[in-house]
Amino acid sequence: MIVFLSPFESFDERLDALGSTTRRAWDATWGHSTPDAVAAAATADGPLVVVVGPGVDETVGLTWVEALARLRQDISIVMVGDLRTDLVVNAMRAGASDVVAPNVSHTELLGTLDRARDAATRRREATIVENAERGRGKVLVVLSPKGGAGKTTISTNLAVGLANEMPGGEVALLDLDVQFGDVSHAMNLVPEHNLGDAAAATRNGLDLTTLKVFLTHHRSGAFVLPAPESLVQAEEVNSEHVKSVLGLLSEHFPMVIVDTSAGIGEHALTALEFATDVLFVASPNTPNIRALRREVEAFELIGLIGASRHLVVNKTEGRGGISVGEIESTIGLPVTYQIPRSRGVTVSTDEGIPILEDGGRDPAAKALRELAVSFAPGGVNSGRATRGRKKA
Ligand SMILES: Nc1ncnc2c1ncn2[C@@H]1O[C@H](COP(=O)(O)OP(=O)(O)OP(=O)(O)O)[C@@H](O)[C@H]1O
Ligand SMILES: [Mg+2]
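Output (structure tokens, whole complex):
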């Protein structure tokens, strides 16, 4: 995606001609915001290219270019301004890859944007390829028998929390709730591609280079492969596709998080073949806990889980309700983490900002951060676990 920071509404028509992945962003408060705040807002959706201008004061624009370049090495920055030598030199020094005149021709602008996008894509790919050399890492699969227990909340926050702990493009998040996945809403992403595209590409033999094109970069640093956009596209995704995708992701990212749909579906079972850790999520109420017991028993019976198992009770209340002791004795697993019910989480879901991005002292954010840190290098759950299914 390409974002133009420009107050000129009249510029929108021109942007339409540049393609659907180009948009204009402008906020009246930017005049008094710090350059870092403007840069953070401009890169919120993980664009590949940010264009400063037209219509931005030169001196102000240069401070924005500098902030963008400092905060996000993986984007290309283009500045719109007079092609005077001093401005071009200053823009390049601040970190712009190109400067174009306000009256640049359509063809020239297209060429500049293509170059900028290619350069940014190459830089992002380089960070992933580096990881490939570090060998196989962890695959965390998040499961729950019933809907609404908090799988997506936990998966997206794990991705953000772990990306924070493991900077440098080491974390991938796969939305395997193929029919109704909402990871991209929970992270406010506008993905250009999704798992459906990756599945379609496996026909020609999916390789890492192709898969990388389908990933969307979240501002936390995590790479996301969202669920298909439509039910029709979801129907096309089969377990062989999931195997190819997860095989590549787990080979190349030290940390892969998999969100799933409620219950024991075909895709969740496939994901378990790759899992080093399974996080069972349940709300502290009797139907949820009973269902989880049945799920855990089913996995035991078919000898499915060789991976480490973690029991996360989400939406715990201060008093009343089913106790941790009861939950543990019902399920037969120790409760590894408890995440309190918090209004902050509900708001963060609605806003599409995982609470670990700016949760501050919210009690649920604190618990989610601890959960994420436990899987990061050096954390209590960082040890290597057996991957996949138990051998019979
Ligand atoms: N600790 C919490 N405190 C308050 N609200 C929460 C908490 N965890 C999750 N929620 C809210 O519960 C709702 C369901 O959460 P979420 O989407 O993560 O569940 P899910 O297991 O992924 O559901 P589904 O099975 O439908 O995919 C969301 O509105 C979310 O904001
Ligand atoms: Mg979900």
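The domain at 134-375 is CATH 3.40.50.300 (Rossmann fold).
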